[in-house]
Amino acid sequence: MTPGKRTYLLKLGELTLKRGNKHVFEKILVRNLSAMLKGSAAQTITHDGRFFIRCTGEVSQRVEDTLNHLPGITGWAKVCEVEKSVNAVIEACVKEAQLCVEGGSRSFKLETRRTDKSFPLRSYELNCMAGNAICEALPDFRVDVHKPDAIIRVEIRERAYIYGAEKKGLRGLPVGTAGRGLLLLSGGIDSPVAGFLMALRGMSLAAVYFHSYPYTSDDAKQKVIDLAALLRSYTLGLKLCVISFTAVQQRIKEYAPEEWSTVLLRMAMMECASSVAHYHKCKCLITGESLGQVASQTIENLTCSESRAQLPVFRPLIGFDKEAITKKAVEIGSFPISIRPYDDCCALFSPAHPVLRGNTSTAAQLYSELELDEILHDALQTREYY
Ligand code: ATP
Ligand code: MG
Fold first, then answer.
1. Are 206 and 239 in contact (CB under 8 A)?
2. Which overall architecture, per CATH, does domain 5-168 show?
3. Which residues lie with the beta carbon below 6 Å from any ligand 1 atom?
4. Domain 180-385 in CATH: superfamily?
5. HSE on the CB side for 359, CA within 13 Å?
6. What ligand is nearest to the CA atom of residue 189?
7. Measured in angstroms, how far is the CA atom of residue 171 from the centroid of ligand 1?
8. Which ligand 1 atom sits closest to the C-alpha of 294?
9. Domain segments of the chain: what residues?
10. 3-state class of 305 per DSSP?
11. Which numbered atom of ligand 1 lies nearest the CA of 346?
12. Averaged in consecutive runs of 10 residues, what is the pLDDT profile of the chain (386 residues)?
Protein backbone atom coordinates (compact mmCIF):
# COMPACT_ATOMS: atom_id res chain seq x y z
CA MET A 1 0.00 0.00 0.00
CA THR A 2 1.30 3.45 -0.90
CA PRO A 3 0.25 6.49 1.11
CA GLY A 4 -0.06 10.08 -0.15
CA LYS A 5 -2.41 11.73 -2.57
CA ARG A 6 -2.88 10.82 -6.22
CA THR A 7 -4.40 12.72 -9.11
CA TYR A 8 -5.49 11.17 -12.40
CA LEU A 9 -6.36 12.99 -15.60
CA LEU A 10 -8.95 11.43 -17.91
CA LYS A 11 -8.99 11.95 -21.67
CA LEU A 12 -12.33 11.92 -23.43
CA GLY A 13 -12.25 11.23 -27.15
CA GLU A 14 -15.44 10.54 -29.05
CA LEU A 15 -17.46 12.34 -26.39
CA THR A 16 -15.99 15.62 -27.46
CA LEU A 17 -17.62 15.15 -30.88
CA LYS A 18 -21.11 15.03 -29.42
CA ARG A 19 -21.52 18.83 -29.43
CA GLY A 20 -25.12 19.56 -28.37
CA ASN A 21 -25.56 16.76 -25.87
CA LYS A 22 -21.95 16.49 -24.82
CA HIS A 23 -22.82 17.46 -21.26
CA VAL A 24 -25.34 14.60 -21.04
CA PHE A 25 -22.64 12.10 -22.03
CA GLU A 26 -20.21 13.63 -19.58
CA LYS A 27 -22.73 13.49 -16.77
CA ILE A 28 -23.32 9.80 -17.40
CA LEU A 29 -19.58 9.16 -17.52
CA VAL A 30 -19.10 10.82 -14.14
CA ARG A 31 -22.08 8.94 -12.72
CA ASN A 32 -20.59 5.63 -13.91
CA LEU A 33 -17.22 6.48 -12.49
CA SER A 34 -18.68 7.43 -9.11
CA ALA A 35 -20.69 4.21 -8.99
CA MET A 36 -17.65 2.12 -9.89
CA LEU A 37 -15.58 3.86 -7.21
CA LYS A 38 -18.27 3.85 -4.56
CA GLY A 39 -16.91 3.54 -1.03
CA SER A 40 -13.35 4.42 -2.05
CA ALA A 41 -13.62 8.13 -1.14
CA ALA A 42 -12.07 8.96 -4.53
CA GLN A 43 -13.35 12.29 -5.86
CA THR A 44 -14.21 13.06 -9.46
CA ILE A 45 -13.56 16.70 -10.33
CA THR A 46 -14.37 18.60 -13.50
CA HIS A 47 -12.49 21.74 -14.56
CA ASP A 48 -13.31 23.35 -17.91
CA GLY A 49 -14.08 20.11 -19.70
CA ARG A 50 -11.16 18.24 -18.11
CA PHE A 51 -11.85 15.37 -15.72
CA PHE A 52 -9.71 14.50 -12.75
CA ILE A 53 -9.86 11.92 -9.99
CA ARG A 54 -8.24 12.63 -6.67
CA CYS A 55 -7.69 9.78 -4.26
CA THR A 56 -5.35 8.43 -1.62
CA GLY A 57 -2.55 6.00 -2.38
CA GLU A 58 -4.46 3.19 -0.65
CA VAL A 59 -7.13 3.13 -3.33
CA SER A 60 -4.97 4.08 -6.32
CA GLN A 61 -4.87 0.50 -7.61
CA ARG A 62 -8.64 0.32 -7.53
CA VAL A 63 -8.88 3.64 -9.36
CA GLU A 64 -6.48 2.42 -12.05
CA ASP A 65 -8.38 -0.86 -12.49
CA THR A 66 -11.59 1.13 -12.83
CA LEU A 67 -10.11 3.44 -15.45
CA ASN A 68 -8.97 0.38 -17.42
CA HIS A 69 -12.58 -0.89 -17.37
CA LEU A 70 -14.35 2.35 -18.17
CA PRO A 71 -15.99 2.73 -21.60
CA GLY A 72 -15.95 6.34 -22.78
CA ILE A 73 -12.36 7.46 -22.18
CA THR A 74 -9.54 7.34 -24.71
CA GLY A 75 -6.81 7.45 -22.10
CA TRP A 76 -5.72 8.40 -18.63
CA ALA A 77 -2.58 9.44 -16.84
CA LYS A 78 -1.34 9.69 -13.31
CA VAL A 79 -0.47 13.37 -13.00
CA CYS A 80 1.72 15.38 -10.69
CA GLU A 81 -0.26 18.39 -9.51
CA VAL A 82 1.74 21.42 -8.35
CA GLU A 83 1.33 25.13 -7.72
CA LYS A 84 1.71 27.43 -10.72
CA SER A 85 5.27 28.59 -10.11
CA VAL A 86 8.09 28.13 -12.60
CA ASN A 87 10.29 26.36 -10.07
CA ALA A 88 7.61 23.92 -8.96
CA VAL A 89 6.77 23.04 -12.57
CA ILE A 90 10.39 22.48 -13.55
CA GLU A 91 11.05 20.37 -10.49
CA ALA A 92 8.01 18.22 -11.31
CA CYS A 93 9.20 17.83 -14.92
CA VAL A 94 12.56 16.51 -13.72
CA LYS A 95 10.82 14.03 -11.41
CA GLU A 96 8.57 12.87 -14.23
CA ALA A 97 11.63 12.49 -16.49
CA GLN A 98 13.27 10.33 -13.85
CA LEU A 99 10.22 8.04 -13.87
CA CYS A 100 10.37 7.82 -17.68
CA VAL A 101 14.05 6.81 -17.53
CA GLU A 102 13.24 4.18 -14.89
CA GLY A 103 10.54 2.90 -17.26
CA GLY A 104 13.18 2.39 -20.00
CA SER A 105 12.80 5.59 -22.08
CA ARG A 106 15.97 7.04 -23.54
CA SER A 107 14.70 10.17 -25.26
CA PHE A 108 11.97 12.71 -24.61
CA LYS A 109 10.21 15.80 -25.72
CA LEU A 110 8.20 18.33 -23.71
CA GLU A 111 4.75 19.52 -24.67
CA THR A 112 3.23 22.43 -22.80
CA ARG A 113 -0.31 23.76 -22.96
CA ARG A 114 -0.85 27.03 -21.21
CA THR A 115 -4.51 27.83 -20.78
CA ASP A 116 -3.67 30.36 -18.08
CA LYS A 117 -1.98 33.13 -20.05
CA SER A 118 -0.90 34.93 -16.85
CA PHE A 119 1.77 32.28 -16.26
CA PRO A 120 5.09 34.17 -16.63
CA LEU A 121 6.61 31.86 -19.30
CA ARG A 122 5.22 31.08 -22.73
CA SER A 123 4.88 27.41 -23.66
CA TYR A 124 8.02 27.44 -25.79
CA GLU A 125 10.07 29.14 -23.07
CA LEU A 126 8.88 26.70 -20.46
CA ASN A 127 9.72 23.75 -22.73
CA CYS A 128 13.28 25.10 -23.13
CA MET A 129 13.84 25.75 -19.43
CA ALA A 130 12.38 22.45 -18.26
CA GLY A 131 14.22 20.61 -21.07
CA ASN A 132 17.54 22.10 -19.95
CA ALA A 133 16.86 21.19 -16.31
CA ILE A 134 16.09 17.60 -17.32
CA CYS A 135 19.25 17.31 -19.44
CA GLU A 136 21.35 18.64 -16.56
CA ALA A 137 19.83 16.21 -14.06
CA LEU A 138 19.78 13.22 -16.42
CA PRO A 139 22.57 13.65 -18.98
CA ASP A 140 21.79 10.33 -20.79
CA PHE A 141 18.16 11.26 -21.37
CA ARG A 142 18.28 13.09 -24.69
CA VAL A 143 15.87 15.43 -26.41
CA ASP A 144 14.26 14.06 -29.57
CA VAL A 145 11.43 16.18 -30.90
CA HIS A 146 10.65 13.84 -33.83
CA LYS A 147 10.51 10.30 -32.38
CA PRO A 148 10.83 10.52 -28.60
CA ASP A 149 10.38 7.45 -26.39
CA ALA A 150 8.50 9.61 -23.89
CA ILE A 151 6.47 12.80 -24.07
CA ILE A 152 6.37 14.82 -20.89
CA ARG A 153 3.24 16.96 -20.88
CA VAL A 154 2.68 20.12 -18.91
CA GLU A 155 -0.69 21.78 -18.58
CA ILE A 156 -0.92 25.18 -16.95
CA ARG A 157 -4.53 25.67 -15.93
CA GLU A 158 -6.14 26.37 -12.53
CA ARG A 159 -3.10 24.43 -11.23
CA ALA A 160 -0.09 23.01 -13.04
CA TYR A 161 -0.30 19.36 -14.12
CA ILE A 162 2.69 17.35 -15.27
CA TYR A 163 2.57 13.81 -16.60
CA GLY A 164 4.61 11.38 -18.66
CA ALA A 165 3.21 7.96 -19.47
CA GLU A 166 -0.38 7.99 -20.72
CA LYS A 167 -2.36 4.75 -20.57
CA LYS A 168 -4.82 3.80 -23.31
CA GLY A 169 -8.49 3.75 -22.36
CA LEU A 170 -11.18 1.49 -23.82
CA ARG A 171 -12.56 4.33 -25.99
CA GLY A 172 -16.21 4.11 -27.03
CA LEU A 173 -19.11 5.74 -25.21
CA PRO A 174 -20.15 5.74 -21.54
CA VAL A 175 -22.44 2.85 -20.64
CA GLY A 176 -25.97 4.15 -20.30
CA THR A 177 -25.94 6.54 -23.24
CA ALA A 178 -27.38 4.10 -25.77
CA GLY A 179 -30.32 2.32 -24.14
CA ARG A 180 -30.36 -1.21 -22.78
CA GLY A 181 -29.92 -4.53 -24.60
CA LEU A 182 -30.46 -8.12 -23.52
CA LEU A 183 -27.41 -10.30 -24.10
CA LEU A 184 -27.97 -13.99 -24.77
CA LEU A 185 -25.03 -15.19 -22.72
CA SER A 186 -23.84 -18.76 -23.14
CA GLY A 187 -20.68 -20.12 -21.58
CA GLY A 188 -18.76 -19.84 -24.85
CA ILE A 189 -16.09 -17.46 -26.07
CA ASP A 190 -18.27 -15.35 -28.35
CA SER A 191 -21.23 -14.01 -26.40
CA PRO A 192 -19.25 -12.24 -23.62
CA VAL A 193 -17.25 -10.45 -26.31
CA ALA A 194 -20.48 -9.48 -28.09
CA GLY A 195 -21.80 -7.98 -24.83
CA PHE A 196 -18.57 -6.13 -24.21
CA LEU A 197 -18.64 -4.57 -27.70
CA MET A 198 -22.19 -3.31 -27.25
CA ALA A 199 -21.27 -1.88 -23.83
CA LEU A 200 -18.46 -0.01 -25.57
CA ARG A 201 -21.09 1.61 -27.78
CA GLY A 202 -22.75 2.90 -24.62
CA MET A 203 -25.35 0.18 -24.17
CA SER A 204 -26.40 -0.96 -20.69
CA LEU A 205 -26.81 -4.72 -20.52
CA ALA A 206 -28.96 -7.35 -18.95
CA ALA A 207 -28.17 -11.00 -19.71
CA VAL A 208 -30.11 -14.22 -20.05
CA TYR A 209 -28.76 -17.76 -19.89
CA PHE A 210 -30.81 -20.82 -20.86
CA HIS A 211 -29.83 -23.66 -18.58
CA SER A 212 -30.70 -27.31 -19.24
CA TYR A 213 -30.14 -29.11 -15.98
CA PRO A 214 -29.23 -32.02 -15.68
CA TYR A 215 -27.95 -32.05 -19.28
CA THR A 216 -25.81 -29.08 -18.39
CA SER A 217 -24.15 -29.05 -14.99
CA ASP A 218 -24.10 -26.47 -12.23
CA ASP A 219 -20.49 -25.86 -13.19
CA ALA A 220 -21.69 -24.70 -16.61
CA LYS A 221 -24.07 -22.31 -14.89
CA GLN A 222 -21.33 -21.06 -12.57
CA LYS A 223 -19.22 -20.30 -15.63
CA VAL A 224 -21.96 -18.05 -16.99
CA ILE A 225 -22.39 -16.39 -13.58
CA ASP A 226 -18.64 -15.66 -13.56
CA LEU A 227 -18.78 -14.30 -17.12
CA ALA A 228 -21.63 -12.01 -16.12
CA ALA A 229 -19.60 -10.81 -13.12
CA LEU A 230 -16.70 -10.01 -15.42
CA LEU A 231 -18.96 -8.08 -17.81
CA ARG A 232 -20.35 -6.19 -14.83
CA SER A 233 -16.89 -4.77 -14.15
CA TYR A 234 -17.27 -2.91 -17.48
CA THR A 235 -20.96 -2.16 -17.43
CA LEU A 236 -22.15 -1.64 -13.84
CA GLY A 237 -25.28 -3.36 -12.55
CA LEU A 238 -25.70 -6.14 -15.10
CA LYS A 239 -28.46 -8.53 -14.06
CA LEU A 240 -28.20 -12.17 -15.13
CA CYS A 241 -31.43 -14.07 -15.58
CA VAL A 242 -31.16 -17.87 -15.68
CA ILE A 243 -34.03 -19.78 -17.25
CA SER A 244 -34.50 -23.52 -17.22
CA PHE A 245 -34.80 -24.72 -20.83
CA THR A 246 -34.74 -28.47 -20.19
CA ALA A 247 -38.38 -28.99 -21.12
CA VAL A 248 -37.98 -27.02 -24.33
CA GLN A 249 -34.97 -29.09 -25.35
CA GLN A 250 -36.74 -32.34 -24.55
CA ARG A 251 -39.77 -31.31 -26.60
CA ILE A 252 -37.57 -30.48 -29.57
CA LYS A 253 -35.61 -33.71 -29.24
CA GLU A 254 -38.80 -35.72 -29.09
CA TYR A 255 -40.88 -34.08 -31.82
CA ALA A 256 -38.65 -32.26 -34.30
CA PRO A 257 -36.59 -33.68 -37.17
CA GLU A 258 -33.10 -34.06 -35.72
CA GLU A 259 -31.39 -31.90 -38.36
CA TRP A 260 -33.60 -28.96 -37.37
CA SER A 261 -33.06 -29.16 -33.62
CA THR A 262 -30.46 -26.39 -33.25
CA VAL A 263 -32.35 -23.89 -35.41
CA LEU A 264 -35.61 -24.60 -33.57
CA LEU A 265 -33.85 -24.23 -30.23
CA ARG A 266 -32.47 -20.85 -31.31
CA MET A 267 -35.97 -19.79 -32.36
CA ALA A 268 -37.31 -20.73 -28.93
CA MET A 269 -34.47 -18.85 -27.24
CA MET A 270 -35.26 -15.74 -29.29
CA GLU A 271 -38.92 -15.94 -28.37
CA CYS A 272 -38.24 -16.43 -24.68
CA ALA A 273 -35.50 -13.77 -24.64
CA SER A 274 -37.95 -11.29 -26.15
CA SER A 275 -40.22 -11.76 -23.11
CA VAL A 276 -37.29 -11.38 -20.71
CA ALA A 277 -36.25 -8.22 -22.58
CA HIS A 278 -39.71 -6.82 -21.98
CA TYR A 279 -39.34 -7.25 -18.18
CA HIS A 280 -36.02 -5.45 -18.18
CA LYS A 281 -36.90 -2.65 -20.58
CA CYS A 282 -34.36 -3.87 -23.13
CA LYS A 283 -34.73 -2.55 -26.66
CA CYS A 284 -32.79 -5.23 -28.53
CA LEU A 285 -31.37 -8.73 -28.24
CA ILE A 286 -27.62 -9.31 -28.56
CA THR A 287 -25.98 -12.57 -29.57
CA GLY A 288 -22.42 -13.75 -30.21
CA GLU A 289 -23.26 -15.13 -33.65
CA SER A 290 -20.77 -14.75 -36.47
CA LEU A 291 -21.61 -15.46 -40.10
CA GLY A 292 -20.75 -18.98 -41.17
CA GLN A 293 -19.05 -19.93 -37.89
CA VAL A 294 -21.29 -22.98 -37.40
CA ALA A 295 -24.23 -24.47 -39.32
CA SER A 296 -26.80 -22.48 -37.33
CA GLN A 297 -25.12 -19.24 -38.38
CA THR A 298 -25.66 -19.23 -42.13
CA ILE A 299 -27.74 -16.29 -43.34
CA GLU A 300 -30.75 -18.59 -43.88
CA ASN A 301 -30.55 -20.13 -40.40
CA LEU A 302 -29.97 -16.77 -38.72
CA THR A 303 -33.10 -15.56 -40.52
CA CYS A 304 -35.06 -18.55 -39.16
CA SER A 305 -33.74 -17.93 -35.61
CA GLU A 306 -34.66 -14.29 -35.52
CA SER A 307 -38.10 -14.90 -36.97
CA ARG A 308 -39.28 -15.52 -33.38
CA ALA A 309 -37.63 -12.39 -31.98
CA GLN A 310 -39.87 -9.47 -31.18
CA LEU A 311 -37.00 -7.00 -31.06
CA PRO A 312 -34.09 -6.19 -33.34
CA VAL A 313 -31.23 -8.69 -32.96
CA PHE A 314 -27.77 -7.12 -32.75
CA ARG A 315 -24.84 -9.36 -33.69
CA PRO A 316 -21.71 -7.30 -33.18
CA LEU A 317 -19.45 -10.25 -34.11
CA ILE A 318 -21.12 -11.01 -37.42
CA GLY A 319 -18.01 -10.15 -39.46
CA PHE A 320 -15.36 -11.35 -36.97
CA ASP A 321 -13.44 -14.59 -37.37
CA LYS A 322 -12.75 -16.83 -34.37
CA GLU A 323 -9.16 -15.63 -34.04
CA ALA A 324 -10.22 -11.99 -33.73
CA ILE A 325 -12.96 -12.89 -31.24
CA THR A 326 -10.54 -14.97 -29.17
CA LYS A 327 -8.01 -12.13 -29.12
CA LYS A 328 -10.67 -9.77 -27.79
CA ALA A 329 -11.78 -12.38 -25.20
CA VAL A 330 -8.18 -12.57 -23.94
CA GLU A 331 -7.97 -8.77 -23.78
CA ILE A 332 -11.14 -8.35 -21.74
CA GLY A 333 -10.38 -11.30 -19.46
CA SER A 334 -13.29 -13.58 -20.39
CA PHE A 335 -11.20 -16.19 -22.21
CA PRO A 336 -9.96 -18.21 -19.20
CA ILE A 337 -13.54 -18.47 -17.91
CA SER A 338 -15.00 -19.37 -21.31
CA ILE A 339 -12.59 -22.26 -21.88
CA ARG A 340 -13.44 -24.06 -18.64
CA PRO A 341 -14.42 -27.50 -19.89
CA TYR A 342 -18.18 -27.65 -19.34
CA ASP A 343 -20.43 -28.40 -22.26
CA ASP A 344 -23.28 -26.09 -23.06
CA CYS A 345 -26.69 -27.52 -23.82
CA CYS A 346 -26.28 -27.04 -27.55
CA ALA A 347 -23.25 -29.31 -27.68
CA LEU A 348 -25.24 -32.13 -26.06
CA PHE A 349 -28.23 -31.83 -28.34
CA SER A 350 -26.54 -30.84 -31.58
CA PRO A 351 -27.46 -32.95 -34.61
CA ALA A 352 -24.81 -34.83 -36.60
CA HIS A 353 -26.10 -33.40 -39.90
CA PRO A 354 -27.75 -30.05 -39.22
CA VAL A 355 -29.82 -28.30 -41.84
CA LEU A 356 -27.56 -25.71 -43.47
CA ARG A 357 -29.94 -23.43 -45.32
CA GLY A 358 -33.19 -23.60 -43.42
CA ASN A 359 -36.27 -22.39 -45.20
CA THR A 360 -38.29 -19.95 -43.10
CA SER A 361 -41.70 -21.44 -43.93
CA THR A 362 -40.53 -24.95 -43.03
CA ALA A 363 -39.03 -23.53 -39.84
CA ALA A 364 -42.31 -21.78 -38.96
CA GLN A 365 -44.28 -24.97 -39.65
CA LEU A 366 -42.01 -27.20 -37.56
CA TYR A 367 -41.92 -24.64 -34.77
CA SER A 368 -45.68 -24.38 -34.54
CA GLU A 369 -45.99 -28.19 -34.47
CA LEU A 370 -43.91 -28.17 -31.28
CA GLU A 371 -46.69 -26.25 -29.49
CA LEU A 372 -44.22 -24.52 -27.23
CA ASP A 373 -46.48 -21.79 -25.83
CA GLU A 374 -47.16 -23.39 -22.49
CA ILE A 375 -43.65 -24.79 -22.07
CA LEU A 376 -42.14 -21.36 -22.79
CA HIS A 377 -44.56 -19.74 -20.39
CA ASP A 378 -43.54 -22.22 -17.67
CA ALA A 379 -39.86 -21.78 -18.50
CA LEU A 380 -40.21 -18.04 -17.93
CA GLN A 381 -41.62 -18.70 -14.46
CA THR A 382 -38.42 -20.61 -13.53
CA ARG A 383 -36.25 -17.54 -13.94
CA GLU A 384 -33.70 -16.85 -11.27
CA TYR A 385 -31.49 -13.81 -10.90
CA TYR A 386 -27.81 -13.52 -10.14
P1 ATP B 1 -20.66 -18.72 -27.79
O2 ATP B 1 -19.18 -18.80 -27.70
O3 ATP B 1 -21.17 -17.39 -27.53
O4 ATP B 1 -21.35 -19.77 -26.99
P5 ATP B 1 -20.95 -20.36 -30.08
O6 ATP B 1 -19.96 -20.26 -31.11
O7 ATP B 1 -20.90 -21.49 -29.13
O8 ATP B 1 -21.02 -18.98 -29.31
P9 ATP B 1 -23.69 -21.01 -30.57
O10 ATP B 1 -23.63 -22.05 -29.51
O11 ATP B 1 -24.21 -21.36 -31.89
O12 ATP B 1 -22.34 -20.29 -30.83
O13 ATP B 1 -24.58 -19.85 -30.02
C14 ATP B 1 -24.81 -18.70 -30.75
C15 ATP B 1 -25.29 -17.61 -29.82
O16 ATP B 1 -26.53 -17.98 -29.25
C17 ATP B 1 -24.37 -17.39 -28.63
O18 ATP B 1 -23.33 -16.50 -28.95
C19 ATP B 1 -25.31 -16.81 -27.61
O20 ATP B 1 -25.54 -15.44 -27.85
C21 ATP B 1 -26.61 -17.56 -27.90
N22 ATP B 1 -26.70 -18.77 -27.04
C23 ATP B 1 -26.34 -20.03 -27.31
N24 ATP B 1 -26.59 -20.85 -26.30
C25 ATP B 1 -27.14 -20.09 -25.32
C26 ATP B 1 -27.62 -20.35 -23.99
N27 ATP B 1 -27.59 -21.56 -23.46
N28 ATP B 1 -28.11 -19.31 -23.28
C29 ATP B 1 -28.14 -18.07 -23.80
N30 ATP B 1 -27.70 -17.76 -25.03
C31 ATP B 1 -27.20 -18.75 -25.79
MG1 MG C 1 -22.22 -21.55 -27.49
1. yes
2. 2-Layer Sandwich (3.30)
3. 184-186, 188-191, 208-210, 269, 287-289, 293-294, 296, 344-346
4. HUPs (3.40.50.620)
5. 4
6. 1
7. 26
8. 11
9. 5-168, 180-385
10. helix
11. 10
12. 79 74 90 94 87 95 96 95 95 96 96 93 95 96 96 94 94 95 97 98 97 90 97 94 97 96 97 97 97 92 98 98 98 97 66 92 98 97 93
